[in-house]
Amino acid sequence: MKRSQIILLLLTILCLGLYFTIPSIQTQLNLAVSILCSLNLESVIAYLREFGVYAALISFLLMILQSIIAPIPAFLITLSNAAIFGWALGALLSWSSAMVGAALCFFIARILGRDVVEKLTSKKALDTADAFFERYGKHTIIVCRLLPFISFDLISYAAGLTSIRFWSFWVATGIGQLPATLVYSYFGQNLSSGGKIIFITLLMMFALSIIIYIFKKIYDKKARIS
């Protein structure tokens, strides 16, 4: 076993140990995941505000958490950050925490390999990501970061399984996710009145994008068979 694998294994054991042996950590983590899974923006904002001066730190950790284990749209946290900290600081917090989450996903995949990543995502999802890399090559990172129906975390994991260098991945991720982060942060700062309508519209667009993508996959598959 390589040293990097040992270090990652020890960190995983440490995190699991803290989760299962300290009730307060387990309770807070379960609550955080539950609130994120509810897709209720006001609940996320209220939850973060409860931490006062530590709200930014908790938001940072939540973004990393959703990157690794929770398939929750990251824009939910991005909108909350902007509503709490303002457009500029919220965007910076969301962008930097997403970058850390992407890097962790990349290294988890590179160190532990495809079998582990398939358990964290799914074989079918990874096959889809592989198809994107075959089609777009080195431009896959930027292209997929700009598509709202492509999982941010899936592409990070998939990139770690390719021969792409980390710094190329890092730069492409930073550039690709910046436009969406700025747009969501702008709307997040103006959540009152019209902003809430925009948020609902974003959720509907996200859901519609997924539906269109699924139907397109089914259509392409039938076309190949025929």
TrEMBL record:
Q: Tell me the membrane topology, using the record's own terms.
A: Multi-pass membrane protein
Q: Does the keyword Membrane apply?
A: yes
Where it sits in the cell: the answer is: Cell membrane
Its protein name is: TVP38/TMEM64 family membrane protein
Q: Which GO terms describe its cellular component?
A: plasma membrane
Q: Which residues cross the membrane?
A: 51-77, 84-109, 166-187, 193-215
Q: According to its UniProt record, where is this protein mainly located? A: membrane
Q: Which family does it belong to?
A: Belongs to the TVP38/TMEM64 family.
Q: Which organism was this protein described from?
A: Sulfurospirillum diekertiae
